[in-house]
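Re: the request from the purification team.
They wanted to know what the chain is likely to look like in 3D before they choose a buffer screen. I agreed to run a prediction and write the result into the notebook, where they can find it.
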Amino acid sequence: MNILITRPSPYGEQLVNKLLDFGKLAYHLPLICFSTGKELSSLEQKLNLLSEGDFLCIISQHAIKYAHNQLLDIGISWPTKLAYYSIGHATSVMMYRLSGILVKYPTIQETSENLLRLPELMYSYGKRALILRGNNGRTILDDTLQRRGVFVISCECYTRQPLQYNREEQSYKLLELNIKTVVVTSGEILQHLYRLIPKFYRTSWLIRCKLIVVSLRLAKLARRLGWTDIIIARSASNEVLTHILIKHS
């Protein structure tokens, strides 16, 4: 049961290499790439709006990478007076490795919904929060914190852009590779994949594959698109995905 990895670079290649080490056959087809976000140059100004005890929320590793490089370029450090939060463990680890700052994250399942259940964010009236994100992402974090009385500032640190492929050519290639399991880590990627594959191959092959997703929300979207064999991972980390793929493929 060969595996299709749709994670963007470099994490997609890293996951493929992990699977190859375990004797699994995997193919990487990234569907989006990243570039500098349009608001990155305003990061310092937005950090200066925060006071001691305010929140800094990080959506992804990509947000950290672009934001950290921006601060290095202008010669300033991450403020230590803030309370740092991230969606997932991998983002927390990256932030600690780059800055030495500890970042809290949800440990049950790594989603915005579970981050919002942390007690500090449940009772946050009167605080300010800076959210480091990409373009066109979900706004549940912003919207919920605002309803709780938080003054929310957002900074688009990176931009996601779709990669273009020949639809028929990619379909033939994936069928030849005997892909039976597909890994998808975001709704945007799932919809790009669904639109990439022509209808005949979509119904006869794609939605019949086992689908590994990283949240209940993503599983619900997949079911609406036609998938029935769906496994939900507790996070998008390559370690967790590798464990699930070894077990189920």
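For the purification team: The chain has a mean pLDDT of 95.
Please add any questions underneath this entry.
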